[in-house]
Amino acid sequence: MSELFGAVLARGPVAAAVGDPAWVRALLEAEAALAVAGARTGLVPAAAAARIAQVCRSLVPDPAELGAAAADTGNPVVPLVRQLEAAAGPEAGSYVHRGATSQDVMDTAMVLVARRAVDLVLADLAACADAASRLAAAHRCTVQAGRTLLQQAVPTTFGLKAAGWLVALDGAAVRLQVVRAGLPAQLGGAVGTLSAAGPDGLALLDAYAAELGLTAPVVPWHTLRLPVADLAGALGTAAGVLGKVALDVVLLAQTEVGEVAEGTPGRGGSSTMPHKRNAVAAVSARAAARRAPGLVATLLSCMEQEHERAAGAWHAEWRPLSELLASVGSAAAWTAECLGALQVDADRMRANLGAAGPETGAEAVAGALSDGLGRGVAHDLVAGLVRRARGGEGDLRALLLAQEQVAARLSAQDLDALLDPAAHTGCAGELVDRALRHRRQGSR
Predict the structure, then answer these.
(1) Which one of 69, 83, 233, 262 has the largest count of C-beta atoms within 10 Å of its C-beta?
(2) Active-site residue flag, 225
(3) Which of 290, 315, 350 marks a domain boundary?
(4) In terms of Cα–Cα distance, which of 16, 23, 12, 13 is closest to 1?
């Protein structure tokens, strides 16, 4: 990962979990598990398996050296196996990699790297959801302008906005958890028949998967890349949710809106403008999240693979999957930091809502008039008065009271109640309660 851009685009613990040392460790774990599984099924002598496993635990290959040697074979497993054979000695070394092909170890290592990284992403998603839950509860009744097409619409509450974040974040986490739980080992040998494992190939596959705590696939998935596609899709979904939350914060933190601000001391300054207070965490979360769709697309494009072993498509997955995990992990880490210290200005929210004048209650007035006038007539009547108010002909309240069709059906007190923004947040409070209750039930 880049040292220049890593603090912004690779924040949090995931970047290290998908780095070169993590990949090498996963390759060694796969080889060790293969030897142990071989011993359990009679393919490898117990002493040789123990020696191979011990070497896998102690050997510290140089990723750069493996990478350079990989240029001769197309993947780093071949030079790694040579190092293991030499370190294990002549007797045990002959049993290294028994029953497998290079892609088996690469795919399994990729799954191991992804599983560890996903655990870290899930931890940060949980922190994001915890923060959103607190915001939803604290601001259950904090009235705020609802905005559609970037224009003020009708009132809502900030608590409901945060509850929406909460449900989406938890939903993204659930999708990732499902994929993580089903991550499979890979073992098929040269063309997926397990022929190199002898008559006990299926037993070897099951023992190998069990040793690693992975799912045993029904058949090898060398060119059937559903596990990678499912993982990419779930990560892309998480990135989309995180990007949406971050965008909401960026928009609400605009100077002209000023309804929220990030609370991390010392952050948010500009190189030229001393007065600036940029929402750096939200901006950085958006930047990281926006890298995800392209990486997801690359991984999905790798699904079309030839026959029993692809020429380049599985090789093309290694870096984009690592980068996708790091990007989503960065977005999750930044969002957790952003929401955890978010400052909410309830007074500004109410002031912004009032800045639109009584127009925010126009929908409620039209609804109250619909019974007597019909929905279409009532809507057109109120819309016409709103246009007149905007044209400078008077205050909307006064124009409504002066309209005979309105005055005959609504008193001044009725009208004031209808034009009060706080009275028209619908089921916002109950929806917040519903979201919080759903989360409590899901955490049991």
Answers:
(1) 262
(2) no
(3) 350
(4) 16
For residue 265, pLDDT beyond 70: no
Annotated catalytic residue within 147, 309, 348, 409: 309
- Of residues 1 and 372, the one with the higher pLDDT is 372
Classify residue 157: in a domain, yes or no: yes
CATH number, residue 419: 1.10.40
What is the per-residue pLDDT for 367?
85
Task: Determine the residue type at 63.
Answer: P
* Gap between the Cα atoms of 234 and 285, Å rounded: 17
List pLDDT tens digits, range 386-432. Answer: 899 888 888 888 888 888 888 888 888 878 777 777 778 889 999 99
The answer on 412 and 306 residing in a single domain is no
Angle at alpha carbon of residue 38, lines to 27 and 73, rounded to 5°: 40
Check whether residue 222 and residue 175 sit in a common domain. yes
If one compares 25 and 440, the residue with the highest pLDDT of the two is 25
Number of domains in the chain: 2
Residue range 129-168, pLDDT digits in tens: 999 999 999 999 999 999 999 998 888 999 999 999 999 9
Please give the residue range of the domain that contains residue 278. Answer: 6-13+101-196+213-350
CATH number at residue 343: 1.20.200.10
Residue 252 lies in a domain: yes
Catalytic residue among 2, 94, 195, 270: 270
Helix extents (H) in 193-340: 201-212, 226-252, 280-289, 292-301, 318-340
Backbone angles phi, psi at 284, to 5 degrees: -70, -35
Is the pLDDT reported for residue 267 higher than 90? Answer: no
